[in-house]
Design a protein that fits this description.
Layout (H helix, E strand, L loop, with lengths): L2 H30 L3 H27 L10 H11 L5 H14 L1 H21 L1 H28 L14 H9 L16
Helix pairs in contact: 1-2, 1-3, 1-5, 2-6, 5-6
């Protein structure tokens, strides 16, 4: 396997592990959240993370490999144990920020794997690079909602009813990414 392909696969696999972890954590937070808007926000993001993990696993398979253990796995197990039972939105995000900062050095190699995979895709696999850019654009929606809602809950911004939904353009890009290759005959025999 060439270096670029190996770097892409490793980056995809680390990203997959992080997304699966995020889905589990945010679903756990949602399960205990009493505020309906915060519960729905956590669940929207948890579902998006789970979907991303699935899509990343599918991309790994499409490239001829299989999802496997990732460099982040041990740290994520520790973080999940530490964070999953935190109560209160501000306390949850403060906890997430704390463990992220505390373990930044331990995660450095994994962050480098993500960066190398993205750069390798940019330079050698346009389809995977476009796929990753779609996922990262959706991640910005989730992160933006968490940051803004944290500001609301800590009194920096007035309370809103905003939820972490994708823009219309993002939804259309998602739908378009599922289309078959143009010019190929349809595979549905029911319309033949």
């Amino acid at each position: 396997m060439d270096t670029s392909r190996a770097e892409i696969l490793e980056g995809l696999n680390v990203f997959r592990a992080l997304e699966a972890w995020g889905a589990t954590l945010y679903a756990a937070w949602a399960a205990e959240e009493l505020d309906p808007r915060l519960r729905v926000g956590h669940l929207i993001i948890a579902e998006r993370e789970a979907n991303h993990a699935r899509l990343l696993a599918e991309r790994i398979r499409a490239l001829g490999s299989e999802p496997g253990p990732a460099c982040v796995d041990v740290i994520l197990v520790e973080h999940l144990a530490e964070l999953r039972d935190l109560q209160g939105f501000v306390a949850q995000l403060d906890g997430l920020r704390r463990v992220t900062a505390r373990d930044k050095a331990r995660m450095a190699g994994c962050q480098q794997a993500l960066d190398r995979g993205l750069e390798a895709a940019k330079n050698s696999d346009a389809e995977t690079y476009a796929f990753l850019m779609r996922l990262y654009s959706e991640e910005r929606v989730s992160g933006g909602w968490y940051r803004h809602t944290y500001g609301e809950m800590s009194g920096k911004y007035p309370r809103s009813d905003a939820l972490p939904v994708l823009s219309s353009e993002q939804v259309v890009r998602r739908a378009e990414s599922t289309r078959g290759t143009s010019g190929e005959p349809g595979a549905c025999s029911a319309v033949a």
